[in-house]
Amino acid sequence: MGAGLYRRTMLTISNNKLVEHLSTRYGRKLASKFIAGDNLEEAMDRTEELNKQGIMVTLDHLGEGIKDLKEAEGYRDEYLRIVREIAKRKVNANVSLKPTQFGLALDKEQCYANIRAVVSEAKYSRIFVRLDMEDTPYTQATIDLVRKMHAGWMTNVGTVIQAYLHRSEEDVEKLSNEKVNLRLVKGAYKEPPEVAYQNAGQVLDNFKKLIEHRLTNGIYTAVASHDDRIINWTKKFAAANNIARDAFEFQMLYGLRMNKQAELAEEGYRVRCYVPYGTMWYPYYTRRLAEKPANLALVLRNMFK
Question: Where in this chain does the record put each Proline dehydrogenase domain (predicted)?
Answer without folding.
Answer: 44-296
